[in-house]
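Is this the right way to post structure tokens for a design question? Let me know if I should format differently. Anyway, here goes:
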């Protein structure tokens, strides 16, 4: 989609200036996910920015796992993140990187900070540390170990590394200013004890650096020029700068913050999405209702649509909530000219065409000249293009004595303005086929329509009916040659949206497990009971003779994808991607 103007957000301006002034001759960015969950639509924004600017300015972008928190992380998450970034269409520079591959260096530099008098081992309990940090009008209290000698600190830090402390008994803190206006500068913790197995480093370490310490130094090691992150890290920038300065880098990386992506009805927090998975309210991280990259891929959102969406949203420092329909707009745009069309009946109602045999017997002589068809073994095979763009090829649609139409296309008591079939308006065009006239309506003991008996006008294959106007076109599928299929229609997973985005901004790094009970309750209260509706549908054969992952437009319904996990040709399963019309 090329109708977008050249991007000129504040980050691209900074980069242009840095290149023009010679501050940098080439640029290096990075995308730094923590492998503690699957990537979501918020990460897509960050990926498009980091890889996007690298591409535009002939630079490179690294993929680096910020894996400093082994108890929350897993190899499965590492693998899914790599697959997602590649699927989105981006190439990282060289090998995948890991903060954990720098643990030796990070340890050396921690020793250096101790030797410089810039760090000390604190033996207070976690509660004491929190309490004594002060804030909210309360003065801070210095740790009893704050002024310990370099030798004592070196010995204690070594003991931490050697496993002589249990978790929570000792931490290494930067020695900055216990009265700093910015709480992040009140001697932040930079190393903690964690007797945990790490997915990359195994059991080599029992101390792990904190994100705020590891991240700037990893940036520096990789020669990152512009370290782009979301606004909640703005208050962490002074410490970022402090660390790279104290360790001593000639060309320090610089951090720039942009606003995070929030979308209504959508959680953009790995922790909360994990809760949905753990609660079992979705089938997994790749449930098509999930705003994860894996979920959206399975839902049938094309990568191009996601990139287009992020471009349209743009980059700024203004917090806001984007309308979900904007995402659907980009997805629909990406599908419009690339998906074959076909007919699928979601709520089948049987129609028996009593004059079928006589009507089609003479089809060749009566049809419009341009219509392509053949009559074989009593089935009239109608050839139609798969898309208005005829380059996408043709398909054959079987037309038979018994067909299905959608239940909602016939009403015994039609509401005002109803344009489809009813006892009063009994004629309609069958798409790609004849004009159909309902002659009789059979109801069951509950009074519900169970079958229609109809006729077709033999002269109307491609031709207008003589002497009357017939309004309305409906889709249909052969009852004998159609394929039974499972069709899943979706609504938002979550009903309310106001709180979602408040929650999103409350996000904090290294807070392992905030109040998960509150999360559970909140999720239960906000779940949409109608987020998934399953239809036992019937589809025309061309829609079933496809591969998992193929995408289509079911005419008059929606865009659909053949489910990547459950689809088979014998029992096709389709997921609704997005509706046909923009409701924005
Ligand atoms: P989460 O709260 O979902 O775990 P996170 O920020 O902790 O998100 P990381 O894996 O650390 O997750 O994020 C990698 C990068 O993605 C970071 O630079 C982060 O700023 C960015 N990012 C995360 N969420 C969003 C979002 N909603 N919008 C834009 N960027 C985001
Ligand atoms: Mg996080």
């Amino acid at each position: 989609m090329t109708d977008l103007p050249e991007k000129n957000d504040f980050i691209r301006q900074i980069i242009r200036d840095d290149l023009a002034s010679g501050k940098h001759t080439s640029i290096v960015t990075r995308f730094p996910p923590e492998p503690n969950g699957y990537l979501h639509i918020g990460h897509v924004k960050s990926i498009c920015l980091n890889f996007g600017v690298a591409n535009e300015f002939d630079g490179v972008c690294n993929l680096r796992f910020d894996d400093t928190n082994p108890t929350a992380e897993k190899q499965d998450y590492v693998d899914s993140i790599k697959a997602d970034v590649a699927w989105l269409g981006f190439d990282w520079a060289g090998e995948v990187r890991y903060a954990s591959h720098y643990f030796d260096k990070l340890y050396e530099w921690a020793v250096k900070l101790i030797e410089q008098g810039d760090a000390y081992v604190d033996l207070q309990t976690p509660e004491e540390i929190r309490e004594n940090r002060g804030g909210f009008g309360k003065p801070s209290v210095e740790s009893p170990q704050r002024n310990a000698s370099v030798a004592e600190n070196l010995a204690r830090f070594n003991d931490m590394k050697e496993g002589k402390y249990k978790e929570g008994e000792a931490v290494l803190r930067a020695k900055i200013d216990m009265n700093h206006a910015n709480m992040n500068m009140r001697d932040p913790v930079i190393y903690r004890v964690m007797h945990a197995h790490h997915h990359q480093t195994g059991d080599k370490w029992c101390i792990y650096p904190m994100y705020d310490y590891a991240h700037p130094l990893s940036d520096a090691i990789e020669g990152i020029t512009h370290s782009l992150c979301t606004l909640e890290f703005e208050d962490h920038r002074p410490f970022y700068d402090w660390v790279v300065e104290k360790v001593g880098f000639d060309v320090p990386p610089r951090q720039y913050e942009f606003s995070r992506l929030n979308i209504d009805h959508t959680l953009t927090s790995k922790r909360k999405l994990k809760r949905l998975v753990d609660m079992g309210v979705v089938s997994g991280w790749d449930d098509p209702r999930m705003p994860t990259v894996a979920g959206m891929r399975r839902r049938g959102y094309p990568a191009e649509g996601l990139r287009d969406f992020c471009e349209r949203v743009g980059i700024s420092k203004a917090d806001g909530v984007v309308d979900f329909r904007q995402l659907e707009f980009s997805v629909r745009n990406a599908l419009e000219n690339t998906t074959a069309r076909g007919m699928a009946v979601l709520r089948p109602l049987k129609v028996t065409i009593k004059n079928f045999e006589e009507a089609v017997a003479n089809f060749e002589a009566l049809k419009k000249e341009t219509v392509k068809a053949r009559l074989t073994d009593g089935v009239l095979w109608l050839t139609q293009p798969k898309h208005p763009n005829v380059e996408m090829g043709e398909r054959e649609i079987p037309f038979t004595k018994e067909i299905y139409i959608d239940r909602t296309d016939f009403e015994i008591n039609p509401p005002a303005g109803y344009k489809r079939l009813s006892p009063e308006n009994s004629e309609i065009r069958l798409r790609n086929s004849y004009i159909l006239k309902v002659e009789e309506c059979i109801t069951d003991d509950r009074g519900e329509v169970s079958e229609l008996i109809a006729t077709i006008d033999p002269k109307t294959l491609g031709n207008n009916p003589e002497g009357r106007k017939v309004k309305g076109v409906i889709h249909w599928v052969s009852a004998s040659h159609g394929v039974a299929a499972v069709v899943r229609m979706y609504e938002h997973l979550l009903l309310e949206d106001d709180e979602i985005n408040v929650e999103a901004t409350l996000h904090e790094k290294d807070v392992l497990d905030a109040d998960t009970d509150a999360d559970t309750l909140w999720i239960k209260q906000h779940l949409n009971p109608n987020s998934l509706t399953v239809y036992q549908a019937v589809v025309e054969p061309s829609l079933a003779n496809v591969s998992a992952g193929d995408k289509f437009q079911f005419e008059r319904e929606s865009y659909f994808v053949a489910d990547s996990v459950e689809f088979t040709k014998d029992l096709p399963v389709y997921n609704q991607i997005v509706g046909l019309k923009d409701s924005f």
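Format looks fine. Someone answered above. Worth noting: Residues 41-56 form the longest helix (16 residues). The longest strand covers residues 435-443.
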